[in-house]
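Our platform keeps sequence and structure together, in a single record for each protein. Such a record has a labelled line for the sequence and another for the backbone structure tokens. The tokens are whole numbers drawn from a learned vocabulary of local backbone shapes. The remainder of this section carries one protein's record, kept here as part of the documentation:
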Amino acid sequence: MREIARTAGRDPGTISRELRRNAATRGGKPVYRAVVAQWKAQQAAKRPKTAKLVGNERLREYVQDRLAGNVRRPDGTIVPGPRTPQWKGLNKPHRQDRRWSTAWSPEQIAHRLKVDFPDDECMRISHEAIYQSLFIQGRGALKRELVTCLRTGRALRQPRARSRNKPQGHVTADVVLSKRPAEAEDRAVPGHWEGDLIIGTGRSAIGTLVERSSRATLLVHLPRMEGWGEQPSVKNGPALGGYGAVAMNAALTASVTTLPEQLRKTLTWDRGKELSGHAQFTLETGTRVFFADPHSPWQRPTNENTNGLLRQYFPKGTDLSRWSAEDLEAVAHALNNRPRKILGWKTPAEVFEEQLRSLQQTGVASTP
């Protein structure tokens, strides 16, 4: 069996089940016959076929009760929960509009059947069959409204292609943090930056850039794009909120190119999709981009600290698009002119000016 499995490219267990399931006993002992196996496969493939939940009322009631059962207190009384409007069959009801229920998952129901009915083979069903009874209209076994009891509230199956889309697919092996130059780690050499977004309501955002050595801050204005709020959003269309990949690249490039070339060596970002066009950004500015590890804000400590300071001016829960580029410039000026303990009570602006003078003197000294 293992040799057959290797040749066929299948698991040995698959071959074992195939032989056991399709063995003919006419000769007195079980012998696999391809003709018998083919006939059985054709019989099983015949359609239409009565769904298991349609033909077994007891099983159907068990499944429906576990999907849509009432939430009860320890003393057995029912918790009514919020009053909800009638479900209209939309793809995903609002979470606050979904009624309370025990809402066992189909997988929990399928496995619990073996515990509650260990000797009754009729009380068996796979979780996939339950999902199909909910998602496929033609089955008619379970009430369509029961999809609101699923934890996702999703009335349509998520395409596999969408689930294979990696949210961090723009982070390749050559731009992870471990590939960042060692000189960026000790902060002795200027020109290495950390960046992120601070997010507001209504898909508004402000880009923040902080130089690791001087702690100088640049704020990137991300205005709404043309058409925001005037037309319905288009699926997979351009991001009009202001920090899509194209808008982010343009705004970052405009901010970074105001700096001397010697002071824009690297940029460390989190794993947000807004910088998925980092290759084009590097090509246009000469600044190499590196991405921190997932859920590791301590790898961008200066930027995280600065974002906390900026919340004094841009509180959480506010629309950040109401501030203009001049407003952001004023806030950055205020932040850069505060004395910092880490800088020996110098201001980031003073340290940044010292770096600029040092670079200019080095450039003059090296000129033949």
In short: The longest strand covers residues 192-200. The beta strands are 23-24, 31-32, 192-200, 204-211, 217-220, 266-269, 288-291. The chain has 13 helices and seven strands.
